[in-house]
Amino acid sequence: MAILTNSINNPVVGLQLKYDDVKVNSGAGYNKNHGNFVAPVNGSYFFSFTASVKPDGGSLRIYMKKSDGSIVGHLLFLGNTFYVKESENIVIHLNKGEEVWTEIGMTSGTIHIHGTEEGPVSTYIHTHFSGFRIGD
After folding, report:
1. What is the phi-psi region of residue 68: left when phi exceeds 0, alpha when psi lies from -120 to 50, beta otherwise?
2. How many CB atoms lie within 10 A of CB 107?
3. What single-letter DSSP state applies at residue 35?
4. Rounded alpha-carbon distances, angstroms, from residue 80 to 53, 84, 127, 136
5. Which residues pair with 36 in a beta bridge?
6. Can you tell me the distance from the alpha carbon of 87 to that of 70, in angstroms, rounded to the nearest whole number?
7. Is the model more confident about 78 or about 66?
8. Structural domains of the chain ordered from first start
9. What is the dihedral of CA 90, 96, 102, 104, to 10 degrees?
């Protein structure tokens, strides 16, 4: 599991999200410097990503993409003026070396993607990414 620590204001289309606080990376598949997961072996993988976004009247689409350019999942935020938290879960087959990442697919208006936040008791995790192999 990897977490976006710094909030992003008004992201541009094509920006790859880099979840920089890596909590678990047992198979060493996630690269926090690039923000992508590289399959260490062939197999079926489960991925999940969650974003907390305040579109402030605008709109935002976040894609989960595969190294062949295909969109394998997405989140869509439309016209809200308050924070919305959404998640996407997918199962996909990857060959060794294939990559998966999240990036901004569409944006308009004022957008705020919420990073982590220090609360009175603990750190609040708002936007995060995880993936793991579930079988061959």
Report:
1. alpha
2. 20
3. T
4. 9, 8, 17, 41
5. 31, 101
6. 19
7. 66
8. 2-135 (2.60.120.40)
9. -120
Model confidence over 95-108: pLDDT tens digits?
Answer: 999 999 999 999 99
Read off the amino acid at residue 21: D
pLDDT digits (tens, 9 = 90+) for 69-92: 999 999 999 888 888 999 999 999
SS3 134: strand
Task: Give the DSSP per-residue string, 43-66.
Answer: EEEEEEEEEEEE-TTSEEEEEEEE
* Closest CA relative to residue 45, chosen from 2, 86, 99: 99
Measured distance CA(110)–CA(103) in Å, rounded: 17
One-letter amino acid for residue 15 of the chain: L
